[in-house]
Prior knowledge:
Number of domains: 2
Helix content: 40-55%
Oligomer: single chain
Amino acid sequence: xxxxxxxxxxxxxxxxxxxxxxxxxxxxxxxxxxxxxxxxxxxxxxxxxxxxxxxxxxxxxxxxxxxxxxxxxxxxxxxxxxxxxxxxxxxxxxxxxxxxxxxxxxxxxxxxxxxxxxxxxxxxxxxxxxxxxxxxxxxxxxxxxxxxxxxxxxxxxxxxxxxxxxxxxxxxxxxxxxxxxxxxxxxxxxxxxxxxxxxxxxxxxxxxxxxxxxxxxxxxxxxxxxxxxxxxxxxxxxxxxxxxxxxxxxxxxxxxxxxxxxxxxxxxxxxxxxxxxxxxxxxxxxxxxxxxxxxxxxxxxxxxxxxxxxxxx
Length: 313
C-alpha cells in the first residue's frame, strides 16, 4: 500500500466516515487552573489506548475483499501492532505482526489479545523490514506500514478533523513525531480546517531525526535513539518528510527530564494516564519551545506499564 500517492484532505474526510463505527470520538480536556490556554485531545482514551487505531482501521477497511482475505502484515514495537491486530480482528482477517525483542510487554499482550500472530525479530529496523517482507511473501498478506502509508496517514488525520469541530482555532497545534504519520495527517487536515494555525511537531532530543530532516530537507538517520518515549524512536520516511516540509511549520526537541515531568503532571493534574510519547507536546510547553495564548495538543497514547512507572523507585 505504501506506493500509493500522498493523501489529501478529501482522503481524511473519507477516512473519518469509514472508521466511525470502529473508533472512539475522544474527549478534549482542559484545566484552566493548572494548564491555562491548553486543550488536550485525549487519544490515550482511544481504542487500544492510542491514536493508531484510526490509521489501522482506515487501512484495513479500505482493502478490497479479495485482498483483505489474504491478511495484513506489519512491523511495530508498540501501538500500531495492537491497532492493526484489532482492525484485522474486526474485519475477520489474519494479522501477522513482527515485533522486536524487548518490545514492551503491555503492547505485546495487547497484540495477543486481539489475535495477532507475533513473530519476534532482532531489534533493528532492517530486521523488522526483512521479516515483514518474508511474511508478506509467505502469506500473501498486504503490508500496512506503521506510518509510510497513505491510508494510515489519512486515518491519523481524523483526530484533527474531530478536534476542529470541538474547539475554536488555537494559535498552535502540537503533535508528537516518531515516524511522522500523525504529524503529516494532522498538518494536512489543519491546512483546511484551521489554515492560520501553526502545526509544530515535537520529539525527544535523544531521537531527533525528524527535526534534523525537516531542517535540512534530507532524510537524516536515526542514530541509536535513547529516550523514555519508546513510541517516538522511529524515523521519518521519504513520504512523511515530504508532507512535513509541505505542511508543518516547525519541529522542536525536548529533554528527557521535561518528558518525565510532563508525563507526571498529566497523571497528577489532568488525571489521565498518558505514556511518555504522548506527553512530549506538554514538555515543549514546559520548556517554552512554543508560543501562543491557546495551544492544542494530541495526547497520543496511554499504554503505560504501571508496574514500571518512569519516576517510580
